[in-house]
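Notes from the 1:1 (GR / supervisor)

We went over the backlog. Supervisor wanted to see one worked example end to end before approving the batch request, so GR pasted a single chain during the call. The sequence is below; no edits were made to it. Supervisor asked that the structure be written out right there so they could see what the output format looks like.
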Amino acid sequence: MSNEAANMHDDVALAGRQVATVPAGGESASDGSVERARPVPRISIQAFCETESSAQAVQAAAEDRRLSKTHVSVHMGGTPAAVAHYQESPTPNLIVIECSATREQLLAELDMLAEHCDAGTKVVVIGHINEVILYRELLKRGVSEYLIAPIAPLDLMESISNLYNDPTSDPVGKVYAFIGAKGGVGSSTICHNASWILSEVLQSDLVIADLDLAFGTTGLDFNQDPVQGIAEALSSPERLDEVLLDRLLTKCSEHLSIFAAPVILERDYDLQVDACETVVDVVRQNVPYVTLDLPHVWTAWSKRLLLQADEVVITAVPDLANLRNAKNIIDLLKQTRKNDNRPHLVLNMTKMPKRPEITARDFEQALDIKVTAEIEFDAETFGQASNNGQMIEELNPKAKAASILRDIAMTVAHRQEARPEKKSALGFLDKLKLKRA
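Structure output shown during the call:
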């Protein structure tokens, strides 16, 4: 077993370590719980459980996007089964052991397991005894972490993440994916405006990755004509590092850069899943925020990026086809991202003259999700901003859509912008009283 855990504080409280998962009522997991579990590198994990609830928790964690690169296998039988297994097989990177025995028996079983552990193997113990003395004994034996049963999937993910991510290093950047329920619904426009607002308000570096390689509009929307961009990175992802990334990015403002699409139809763009993941990983390691402008296509790489994102924003216009497509996307996200926040739904181009529409309330009832924002049809403002290569707030800060787009950006980033309180104007009677006084 590894001795790295011996440097942990002995006074760590064992109680209250559970992290809440998504409640059954359909609400999202709290952002704090999601934030603590970071993506885990490619490691092998083998769990030996005694109870069905712990086995289910490990399996649920294994299906989460943060452990998507790991190989997890779940066995029953606890420590005795692990000892028997490793007498003939090499140990993985991480062993998760559940033991409901007494302190003395637990320590004795772990001593037996230690005889068969390879150097560098980490061990996480799931126990049923809430006792500081036991915790200290486990640390002395090199156990990496001790969790109190029953455990939640996010509790386990957080512990594994802490073992394989340096807490002193810079946090991995957040990835926000924007996708349209149909083509032409304005998802790119919302992505670009929300990204620009985030970079301005948070004063943090942000990169927009335009993954619509043939028809992307990021360069046009920011009035840029880059020579190189994301296609070069995707063609040779193994070469992408901090230096090459800086060369391929196009800087649009002090904090905003774009990974522009080539928009050349002579080339074929058959993207590989691993290449897309590698490029996004390199970008998020160098900037705090990454927004993915996903085209309305359904391929292995677009599905993977959507499911792996920290937050998802779906843009739809109020018609039946958008309702159906949005429902399909949301149902998939609910099924595969049980420990993540619900996606954000934006209804765009509403109240278009003479067009029959499905109301926001009908969308909410059909999709079982709250509409994050509703942007009314405004051809003049959006058309002029597009032609000028400006964001809506740049063109007209007082436009109705400007404040809505700002709210979308802050909601996606889970930030709350402090706004000055409006001073109430004095009424006629108040002025009369002041005059008499």
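Supervisor's comment: Confidence is low (pLDDT under 50) at residues 2-33.
Batch request approved.
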